Fold each of these.
Amino acid sequence: MSFERLPLLLFGLLFFPLWAVADLGEEQSLAFVEPINQYVYQTAPYPPIEKPIQGKQFSGLQDAVSFYENIERSGHWEPLSGGPLIGLGDVHEQVIPLRNLLHLLGDIEEDASFLEPLELFDLELYEALLAFQKRHGVKVDGILGSQTRRLLSVSPRRRVEQLLLNINRQQALQSIAGEHYLQVNVPEYRLRLYDQGVIQLDMKAIIGRRSRQTPIFSSKVKTVVVNPSWSVPKSIAFRDILPQWEEDKTYLSKHNFQVLSGWEIPRVIVPEDQIDLEKMYRGGEYQRLWEPPSIKNTLGRIKFQLDSNNSIYLHDTTLRSLFESDQRAFSSGCIRLEKPRMLADALVQSSNRWAPEELDPLFDDVTTHNIRLENPVELHVTYWTAWLDENNLLHFAEDLYRHDLIELAQQNNGSPSVEPSLN
């Protein structure tokens, strides 16, 4: 580290602390269960609203289309080349083109002032890069690295194409959504509850990884289930659980799984010595995996049952640390929620006129309680990779499932774009 960099770094760390988020990779093993924090299931105040990020405001996505078309026509946009990690206090020749790009894209204010020399990565540039990273859903660290370079190097023409795709998607939702509904935007990894166009609740979500995608669909939340059991789907049983049971015959008991005979009520538990893989999910003597309710249940303490036939639902999770990741594609298709209790409170209050504290006694044990909503709430699972937030700032997200790429290829008669991804 150079000595001329040290004062700026110390100043920056005092007033603009950096933070890191672990790269958690694929979904964690079922064997890993974090300690249960009972506070999660009690009524709690909403977290403080974060300071709005800086950036150019738009009246709508069509306004953003015009903005990027003007950038394309100007001839001022140029992609960033590769290079080293560059951060606060560094002096590097790429600082100047970085500043120019962030100014062009609206992340640097028109009247911003900069320290000399112009190659110095100063605090104004650091704040602008933080805003750019946050708008693009990646790790917000204020460091110019390979991922941020890639995002800065997405051409204006590609952004126009992406915006036009998402205008169509958002118009499709507007045509069917009522005044009170839930939206899970898959590329954004978030759930929001809307009422009269106003966000009532906003939280992180975990969605299906690329190999087990969360479908894009509309449905209704019809039941809130406190202390749910889990009827393990055939696909998860054969991919994740039964292979481990074949290697370790104590696996099912260790993880509180039971084998049931068919779908009879009351449930018929198959003795361990009568479990037969040949009968699993097939035949007249059908056997299946089931996990009874508990504080360690895979679905957590709350599940939101949907009026759909695709086996997808919203639920709690014991793997709380996964929400710390910026990109949260870890599930097998269902949608895990950061604050399920807050959503349960909001739904029973608006639908059944219950006070939130009426749910508290239901968490005193692990008995299953099904609360049918008198007015089921619309749920729309969307795939928006570009949108305006409540402050009219433009956001982009990774094309995780390659839906954008496929649609653009179809529009171009099957010829994929030269650029590899939309983000």
Amino acid sequence: MRTIFSLPDLGEGLTESEVVGWRVSVGDNVELNQIIADVETAKAAVELPSPVAGVVAALHAEAGQTVAVGAPLVTFETTADDAAASPGDDPDTARADSPEAHLVGYGARAETAVPRRRAAGAASQAPTPAPPALAPDARPDGPRSTPPVRTLAASLGVDLRTVTGTGDRGLITRADIELAASRAESGRASRARETRTAIRGVRKHTAEAMVASAFTAPQVTVFLTVDVSATTELLARLRTDPRFDGRRLTILTVVAKAVCLALARHETLNSRWDGAAQEIITFGYVNLGIATATDRGLMVPNIKDAETLSLLELADAIGALVDTARAGHTAPADFAHGTITVTNIGVFGVDAGTPILNPGEAAILGIGAVRHTPWGYRGEVVLRDVLTLSLSFDHRLVDGEQGARFLTDVAAILHNPLPLLTLL
């Protein structure tokens, strides 16, 4: 019996995916849940499991091709026990449309959920399914990389053992492979005068979202420069605390906590404009987006119920979120339902900017670089650690006074963070 496996819905309204590479060829025998392809959506790179056991009869897309959800992807030869035809189908052809087949990387498995602390009275939400096991592996015979990166390296003729990874803990990224391939090519030919790159994946999704945001919401940006010497001193002390051993404790961690605390007093910045329903939705929880630069482009996954987390828990959550995003393994659910975003432009040496709102959110806070700057302090001009905060907000939801008061509250916590010690 022939069984047609169509590209499943990867979640959150995504309508297409790019086939990065195939793990199987026509004629191969495959088992149930065996990984058959690496695919990349606008939000994540995932491994696609086989929904049946059988023999690969046909592959309906080539590596690099974009496939619409619902379009045929693979045809298998199966036995009658492996697949059942839907009513009205060709009796010799079945479609792999079981619930398991619509969950990328999940296969046949029991449902699991990750428990999370919630603040009293916070709006309830359904638990987020555990993401598929898509972590980069450290093979005994080679360096750390992800399946799509290995596929790309093979297609470009790049030996992974000759590549130095620039990702987290030496992870080899797509950019590393492309750079190695271009260097090898430059040894054989002069540099091209022009290079054309297809607009797709995260770059395409980000561009469309930013254009929609810029031309939908009237955005205003305000700036405030603050002395954060007390925060940098606190961070230095906490890094010697055994509880923070091995954890990334940065200015972003403190800003994230300050944002959650300030939103309790300024809930208009934690809201959404619903034009279709002609309603303003104000959230009783904080799903805090962390803008993350990756080799696939800018991504904004969010920490669910961030207001319920201590400073220690936020440090862990941010670290895990950034590592997963940079590895390209963020689950689609982690991009959904964000309520406010923080972007740390200071890591690139930038002092301030005008961040564009993540679509549907009321505000985004930019964190500038910490500078050792002459500053008025206790009647004298001394060198202090100073940074600039840049707050963009939707003027339909937040007026100037509300935005300014929220920003000054965040700045006040950074200026005097000692009360945070009770929230560790």
